[in-house]
Amino acid sequence: xxxxxxxxxxxxxxxxxxxxxxxxxxxxxxxxxxxxxxxxxxxxxxxxxxxxxxxxxxxxxxxxxxxxxxxxxxxxxxxxxxxxxxxxxxxxxxxxxxxxxxxxxxxxxxxxxxxxxxxxxxxxxxxxxxxxxxxxxxxxxxxxxxxxxxxxxxxxxxxxxxxxxxxxxxxxxxxxxxxxxxxxxxxxxxxxxxxxxxxxxxxxxxxxxxxxxxxxxxxxxxxxxxxxxxxxxxxxxxxxxxxxxxxxxxxxxxxxxxxxxxxxxxxxxxxxxxxxxxxxxxxxxxxxxxxxxxxxxxxxxxxxxxxxxxxxxxxxxxxxxxxxxxxxxxxxxxxxxxxxxxxxxxxxxxxxxxxxxxxxxxxxxxxxxxxxxxxxxxxxxxxxxxxxxxxxxxxxxxxxxxxxxxxxxxxxxxxxxxxxxxxxxxxxxxxxxxxxxxxxxxxx
Length: 444
Known about the structure:
Elements: H1 6-24, H2 31-45, H3 53-60, H4 66-72, H5 79-94, E1 100-109, E2 119-123, E3 128-142, E4 145-154, H6 157-160, H7 163-168, H8 180-193, E5 200-203, H9 211-219, E6 222-227, E7 232-234, E8 243-245, H10 246-251, E9 259-266, E10 269-284, E11 295-304, E12 311-319, H11 324-332, H12 334-347, H13 358-383, H14 391-411
């Protein structure tokens, strides 16, 4: 973080932690369970690199991990209720009408067959097919920062077709098989129903076509969704003639169609790519939303790496006249959820869950989401510019300054620099009060 002193950051940290604990208290009906949840949150934010039950118990001085395991298993509380609290908490700091909702998934490497949803499946976390769980997430990205808003565990058919496995993992009876795009669509619908302010959705090719597109069109939301190179596109009347697969269309574009643009900044600076945008059709919004009067454009966005020429392809839906720079910026927001996964795993123990049940996974992840939202809130407040002084405040400052100068002149007419009263003095009780250890604030 930048823009805040150590003292200010420490104060923000303390207040944010109290606030987060007070908010999640509403989820619990018993004080002892709430106390265990507060300790669980402390453990997630602690310095231990591995957030396992035993290590967090040792750090807290407990004889064993049973209280931490109980909060994920035997305790009675609803993970979805905490999810909604996290969403509202994050939005207090990050809400912006131009925000992007980012959908993506991440893998949780596992051994054995008992953990809910585990199986041999592809995960980008490992870059291969391996034994793991897959969680689908929605993150909120705005000019103020980013945080997780929603999550759900993906269940392969090898689980949903096995009632005994579902029962053993305490999967609710109403949970059946759902594709990852359908899980993403439900998250988008929950965000819309909750009044989350956003105008765009960005996601990779897993979520690029199908029912999520229609959901967003009906809701009046724009999107930049990844598609495969073999996905077919064609232009309608009134647009430049374009037809074929995304890969073929990109190969046939003239050099003048490409523009070097930034997809945002990371720790190394602007992420520059070559971009091309093909408008395919202008459609009346009232085809999807009754009473809507605006025109929207369906298009193909192409991103090419200057280093190796590899391309990525995106189907787009946006208000007519949207510039390619805006579409590139929306697509560039997808890195925020990748950054969130990395931070949550390396700093907050997102993938250190030891529970095997359905509710254990969702409880653990929801508590990590709360910790992440807290860090996002601290970062936003620490980096916020100081409030502008009003005319009344400036007048008071001038009066105080003038009064001080008058008093000094009366005591020492010459204003000598050798006057002992002009030397700075230390405030009583200040020396040595600052903590020797600064709390870790993860990059969010």
